[in-house]
UniProtKB/TrEMBL annotation:
It is an enzyme of class 5 (isomerase). Pathway: Glycan metabolism; pectin degradation; 2-dehydro-3-deoxy-D-gluconate from pectin: step 4/5. Belongs to the KduI family. Zn(2+) binds at H195, H197, E202, H244. Its EC number is 5.3.1.17. It comes from the Bacteria. It comes from Paenibacillus brevis. This is 4-deoxy-L-threo-5-hexosulose-uronate ketol-isomerase. One of its GO terms (molecular function) is 4-deoxy-L-threo-5-hexosulose-uronate ketol-isomerase activity. The gene is kduI.
Amino acid sequence: MERRYASHPSQVKQFDTERLRQEFHIPKLFTPNALELVLTHEDRMIIGGAAPVNSDVKLETDLRELGVEYFLERRELGVINVGGPGIILVDGTAYDLERKDCLYIGMGSREVIFRSKDAANPARFYLNSAPAHKEFPTAKTTLAEAESGAMGSIENSNERTIHRFIHESGIQSSQLVMGMTQLKSGSMWNTMPAHVHPRRMEAYMYFDLPEDAVVIHLMGEPSETRHIVMRNEEAVISPSWSIHSGAGTNNYTFIWSMAGDNKKYADMDAVSMKALK
């Protein structure tokens, strides 16, 4: 498990492109038959992926980093499948996940195993884990079952549908909030006007991008913006003080996840377009 440290906004002002990518960009999430994990000190979120092809992948790592006996002893986990049909075994109970289905796994679950149904069309499980202080039951929701709402307009190039999976009035969690946004054809902006989450960090994972497409992910303080070039199935860490917005060369989908002081999806501080620099 790779470790990333928290960064101060005054420090980030001095970062060049390479340093920005080292601190915030997560380029590798899915390695065949392996588990990839990045621990950020931004609210102790763990971001990663499990990519079983012809063998199972277990949720396990060097637990000295977490100071526990098993991964979910003091953590919770949100999983969204962005690949082919798969199965997640949680302490022996099997959960089938089709593409874009979500599974929440509560604190105290001892054994988590990821499996693909078809090696020719393997599952790819995107993972977000946050520290937990209370146990909630493991629960699944499909894309069709999620609380969804339309936002934006084609005139502003940001027509999109927001699907909320793990949130205040959906799947219950200790602090993890997780969902997915799908941009309509002809739209490219994911969030503009921008905002910040002073009480929560956030992570984005971009996918459904063609091989030659990119998303320009905007971050930094409103008065000191920076950008990171993102490609398909890559993630980025957004500190609580940073904006998180972006525009792609065509439409795309992204998974957002948050951890912090509350689970209110709408708890954000808007940034005036005039304040951006």
